[in-house]
Design brief:
By secondary structure, the chain is α+β, with helices and mostly antiparallel strands. The chain is built from 11 helices and 20 strands.
Length: about 450
């Protein structure tokens, strides 16, 4: 009888431990679900099929499989998956946090991701936010049959375009397919600590707008320039031309906005942890580096990308190209007053407003007997968040009776009275932009 009673007690204890284990795992799964719905986004981990149809970054895929196993109470399988993540990415702090949760879940219920006692709350919140963003990214449908509405036309020499979606912590890479963008990859990114819409120096915000890569700062050059501080940028950096012409017109200032890597002691950074730059893992920075052309590669930063069918931008492209050609022909005609009708009332260029620009053009045209203008290599980008603003860049070959010159020109066109007109015009030469060291 004593032996039977002892056996019953052992089985009862095992049942209690098993129930506690199930409760711990269930609590952890519920905690994960709570994390994944932060910020109004949701990710149904348990419902995710074992095979995801679209291609995604490997760490996100491995992380998602771990979460799926946790949600389905497969603790041992989840431990194997998270060990795979850590084995492939040893400095992936989020993966170490989740493994710690899994080990703790064997002993006691956990209510959220990152239940480690005594851990700094702000760091845990950052990692939870990264978990939510990465898992939501994994479930996103890839834009294989859509394009951002901003990419109206890529010029033949622009092999790729980058579109940053700050709302989804994602940088998309598009290939130039005979002028039409075609999606090829996307990457997890980090933005400014204080979010978006940069206005002034030091506000720790990421700018929104149409920019271009202006320089390349590889690892060895950063070390030469900044010594040990260069470790903040990992494998290198690509400065962009913030503030651009439109930013300066709006009174925005600051400098040193880069695409760059991360310190070597971590695989990635939380979604909001830079000083305004766009940061990628060092591995991903190396991947996009192959697509960068200094002075040519556009970087469009938007607060949520607007996706459209590839043919949806044809009408706007045709309209803007017609207006550009009309501007060119009216310039050639030497009819200065007709030429000036292409400029908006609020036009400015360098230090000239419309009145000063008009006086200058009348004076110059009076000394010419003929003008020929050739426009080539036209790119057109719609400004994110502004339906009536387009950035047009092209190679201009100008010849007249007393002057010939070739220029890379940039114009900003806006709708005025139902017609596209030029609100800014100037050189598009992309001088290297470095400035003082930034800690973005």
């Amino acid at each position: 009888m004593k032996a039977l009673s002892a056996l019953r007690a052992t089985l009862a204890a095992r049942a209690v431990r098993r129930a506690a284990g199930f409760a711990a795992v269930a609590a952890l799964a519920a905690g994960i679900a709570a994390v994944l719905t932060m910020g109004g986004q949701s990710a149904d981990v348990a419902a995710l099929p074992a095979t995801v149809k679209h291609a995604v970054a490997e760490p996100d895929a491995l992380l998602f499989r771990t979460m799926r196993d946790i949600s389905n109470n497969r603790l041992d399988a989840a431990l194997v998956e998270i060990d795979n993540v850590i084995g492939a990415y040893p400095n992936f702090r989020l993966a170490h946090l989740i493994k710690g949760d899994l080990l703790l879940a064997r002993a006691r219920p956990l209510t959220t991701v990152g239940n480690a006692p005594g851990a700094p709350r702000d760091q845990l919140d950052d990692l939870r936010d990264e978990a939510r963003v990465r898992l939501a990214r994994h479930q996103q449908q890839r834009p294989t049959d859509r394009v951002p509405r901003y990419l109206i036309q890529l010029q033949p020499g622009q092999r790729h375009a980058f579109v940053v979606d700050t709302a989804k912590s994602t940088l998309y890479v598009f290939e130039n397919n005979n002028g039409t963008p075609r999606y090829i990859a996307d990457y997890y990114i980090t933005i400014g600590k204080n979010g978006i819409d940069k206005i002034r120096e030091g506000d720790k915000k990421t700018p929104l707008g149409v920019y271009h890569v202006t320089n390349s700062l590889p690892r060895d050059r950063l070390v030469t320039m900044y010594g040990k501080l260069s470790e903040l940028y990992g494998n290198g950096a690509f400065p962009i031309n913030y503030p651009n012409e439109w930013d300066r017109r709006q009174g925005r200032n600051g400098y040193g906005i880069w695409l760059h890597g991360v310190p070597f002691d971590t695989y990635s950074r939380p979604p909001r942890s830079s000083d305004g730059c766009v940061a990628l893992t060092n591995e991903d920075l190396e991947a996009i580096a192959k697509n960068v052309q200094i002075g040519l590669t556009p970087v469009i930063i938007a607060d949520g990308v607007e996706w459209v069918e590839p043919g949806a931008v044809k009408g706007l492209r045709r309209e803007l190209l017609q207006q550009l050609d009309s501007w060119r022909r009216d310039w050639e005609s030497l009819d200065t007053e007709k030429y000036l009708t292409h400029y908006a009332a609020s036009f400015s260029s360098s230090k000239m407003d419309l009145e000063q620009w008009s006086q200058h053009k009348r004076k110059v045209s009076a000394h010419k007997s003929w003008i020929k203008v050739k426009v080539d290599g036209v790119s057109i980008f719609q400004y994110p968040g502004m339906d009536n603003l387009a950035v047009v860049t092209f190679e201009q070959d100008y010849a007249s009776s007393n002057l010939s010159q070739q220029t890379r020109k940039r114009q900003y066109w806006t709708k005025e009275g139902g017609r596209w007109k030029i609100i800014y015009e100037g050189s598009a030469s992309a001088a290297p932009v470095e400035g003082p060291l930034r800690t973005g």
